Amino acid sequence: MKTPLWIGAVALALTAQVAAAQTSSDARFAATTLDLTGHGEARLPPDLATIDLGVTTTAPTAAEAMARNAQAMTKVVAAVRAKGIEPREIVTSTLGLSPQYAYPQGQAAQLTGYQATNRITVTLTDLTLVGAVVDAAVGAGANDAGQISFGLKSRVSAENFARLAAIKALDDKAAAMADAAGYHIRRLVHLSEGSAVRPVSPVPVMAMARMQAAPVTPVETGEVVVSVDVLGEFELTH
Q: What is the pLDDT of residues 162-196, one digit of tens each?
């Protein structure tokens, strides 16, 4: 029985592909390669701050808890607005209502009331107002002043600076290691960014405990660190 021509052609094609892949693989592993990572950073003062502020209230009924909370948060928002903050820079981040229970020993849980929570996130581009905004909000009834974070309005230039620094560090490391091993770099085979650009800001120190004695709560902005990691594969030669 004769084998159809098209089956023979497919078999030849598959054989050629496997041979080509094997040759490529052999060539790759025959070469001496060096895999490294390079790290780069850009450090600069922040020009953006976000403040997390909240009001938590409790009451015997759900309606009363929400009413008290709404009244308090209305005052908080008004106090923040009075510092020159635009409405678009104030965003409600959390709004919740939950029942509260007591658990007497040996008895079933007993409903004691309801807790209402309302949180806002305030974005500031004038960092000199951070302490004053926190003080105004707390003075107006905010009883949960949360995290303050600092960042950048635009990270493009900082990211590019960090990338260039990471690639320079990668090149320097590759040259040093190749030279130590008695090799020279023949070419860069592969280059990729190994991690997302991540802004990191220091946690500010807020003197909340002595707020009544200080005219404005001090806040330290520190600096923002934008970092980039790159991965490179180099082919070496003697």
A: 999 999 999 999 999 999 999 999 999 999 997 55
Coil, helix or strand at residue 65 = helix
Among 228, 211, 84, 63, smallest CA distance to 156 is for 228
**Residue whose token pair is 């104030």:** 90
Domain encompassing residue 38? 31-45+154-238
- Who contacts 9 (Cβ-Cβ below 8 Å, separation ≥6)? none
Average pLDDT over residues 79-87: 96
Positive/negative CA dihedral, 136, 138, 139, 141: positive
- Answer positive or negative: Cα dihedral of 68, 70, 74, 80: positive
Same domain, 77 and 145: yes
CA proximity to 223, closest of 198, 197, 201: 201
Could you tell me the strand order of the sheet in which 48-59 lies?
A: 90-102, 110-124, 48-59, 144-151
CATH number at residue 88: 3.30.70.2970
- Could you give the number of structural domains in the chain? 2
CATH of the domain at 164: 3.30.110.170
pLDDT at 216: 79
Which residue, 164, 156, 143, is CA-closest to 208? 143
Whether residue 48 is predicted with pLDDT greater than 50 in this model: the reply is yes
Each residue's pLDDT tens digit, 91-137: 999 999 999 999 999 899 999 999 999 999 999 999 999 999 999 99
Tokens encoding 168: 């320079």
Mean pLDDT for the stretch of residues 62-82: 97
